[in-house]
C-alpha cells in the first residue's frame, strides 16, 4: 500500500473526521493535504482531519513532552487545513480508533493533544474525555458586565457573548427571548468584537430547561457544523456563569443538530464531555491524488 494512504471515516454526533494513521511519523500532513482530505467534493469530506501519530514523533516539542503519559498524539486539523489545539468530539473518535486498531487496549488512557494530555475513558458504550481546565478569557469584564464580546450575525443587532477557553477559543452567545435559533443565518462567519487574535468558534445557545440547552455552532476553520464537543463544554460553562451556578458540579445536556452531548462541570474548572463515537468506513486514497 506504499502508493496509497490508509484512511478511516468517523464521526461524533455528526461532527465528522477523516482519520489518517501515521504510525511511524514518516507521513507528515501538509495543510494542503489536510484540506484536500476534508474537501467534500474533490476529496473525502469531513469537518476535520485527524492524523494518528506516536507522541514522540510529533513535530511540536510541547506535544513530544507528553510522551511520558500519552502514547498517541491526536494531530487535529480543521477542514481548511489549519491546525487546532483541541477537538472534543475528535478525542472520542480518536480513542475509539486506537482501541479498534489495538493501539490502546485499556478502557482508560491518556492521549496527547496541542492543548495538553487528556484522559479518556470508556463506559456505558460511550467515551468520556476530561477537557479541563476551562478558563474565562476576560474574567474581570465578564464579572462586571456579564459578557466580554459582541457577536454580529448578518445585519441584525449584535448579541452579547462570553469568551471561554477550552484549550481552543470559544465565544458563546445566549440568545435573547424571541430570537429563533433555527432561523439564524450561519452561512457567513459571525463577526466577533473585539476580534480574537487566533479566531474563535462561535456557539449560539438557547436554554431548554434546567441543565439543558440547544446549540448551533460556527467552527473556526470550517463553517457551521452539526456538533462541537469543546463548544458544548463552553456553552455549559457560559450558561452556568450567567446563572451564577458555576461551582455546583452540574451535568448539562447539550442538543446539537447531530445529536446530544453530555457535559459534567467539575470542581476546580474541570469539565468532562461524553457522547458517541462512530467509525463509519475504512479505505485508501492514491497518494498521487494528494497535493504536496
Ligand atoms: N469540532 C471540534 C472543534 C474543532 C476545532 C475548532 N474548529 C477550532 O479551530 O478550534 C470539537 O468537537 O471540539
Can you walk me through this structure?
- This protein is an alpha+beta fold and 292 residues long.
- The chain folds into two domains: 4-131 and 277-289, Diaminopimelate Epimerase, Chain A, domain 1; 135-268, Diaminopimelate Epimerase, Chain A, domain 1 (Roll), CATH 3.10.310.10.
- Helices cover 16% and strands 40% of the residues.
- It contains five helices and 19 strands.
- The strands form two sheets. Strands 5, 6, 7, 8, 9, 10, 11, 12, 13, 14, 15, 16, 17 and 18 form a 14-stranded mixed β-sheet that branches. The chain has a five-stranded mixed β-sheet with strand order 4-3-2-1-19, sandwiched between helices.
- The radius of gyration is 18 Å and the shape is globular.
- Residues 15, 48, 78, 84, 87-90, 168, 201, 219-222, 228-231 line the site of the ligand N[C@@H](CCC[C@H](N)C(=O)O)C(=O)O.
Amino acid at each position: 500500500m506504499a502508493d496509497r494512504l490508509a484512511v478511516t471515516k468517523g464521526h461524533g454526533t455528526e461532527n465528522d473526521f477523516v482519520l489518517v494513521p501515521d504510525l511511524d511519523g514518516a507521513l507528515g500532513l501538509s495543510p494542503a493535504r489536510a484540506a484536500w482530505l476534508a474537501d467534500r467534493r474533490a476529496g473525502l469530506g469531513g469537518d476535520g482531519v485527524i492524523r494518528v501519530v506516536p507522541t514522540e514523533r510529533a513535530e511540536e516539542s510541547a506535544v513530544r513532552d507528553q510522551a511520558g503519559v500519552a502514547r498517541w498524539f491526536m494531530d487535529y486539523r480543521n477542514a481548511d487545513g489549519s491546525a487546532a489545539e483541541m477537538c472534543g468530539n475528535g478525542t472520542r473518535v480518536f480513542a475509539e480508533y486506537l482501541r479498534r486498531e489495538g493501539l490502546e487496549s485499556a478502557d482508560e488512557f491518556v492521549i496527547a493533544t496541542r492543548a495538553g494530555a487528556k484522559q479518556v475513558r470508556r463506559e456505558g458504550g460511550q467515551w468520556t474525555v476530561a477537557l479541563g481546565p476551562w478558563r474565562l478569557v476576560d474574567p474581570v469584564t465578564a464579572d462586571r458586565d456579564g459578557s466580554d464580546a459582541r457577536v454580529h450575525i448578518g445585519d441584525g443587532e449584535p448579541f452579547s457573548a462570553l469568551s471561554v477557553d477550552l484549550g481552543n477559543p470559544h465565544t458563546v452567545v445566549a440568545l435573547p427571548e424571541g430570537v429563533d435559533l433555527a432561523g439564524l443565518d450561519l452561512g457567513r462567519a459571525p463577526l466577533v468584537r473585539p476580534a480574537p487574535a487566533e479566531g474563535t468558534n462561535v456557539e449560539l445557545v438557547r436554554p431548554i430547561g434546567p441543565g439543558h440547552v440547544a446549540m448551533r455552532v460556527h467552527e473556526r476553520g470550517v463553517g457551521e457544523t452539526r456538533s462541537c464537543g469543546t463548544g458544548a463544554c463552553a456553552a455549559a460553562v457560559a450558561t452556568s456563569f450567567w446563572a451564577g451556578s458555576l461551582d455546583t458540579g452540574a451535568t448539562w445536556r447539550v442538543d446539537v443538530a447531530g445529536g446530544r452531548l453530555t457535559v459534567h462541570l467539575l470542581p476546580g474548572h474541570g469539565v468532562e464531555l461524553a457522547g458517541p463515537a462512530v467509525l463509519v468506513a475504512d479505505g485508501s486514497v492514491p497518494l498521487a491524488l494528494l497535493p504536496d
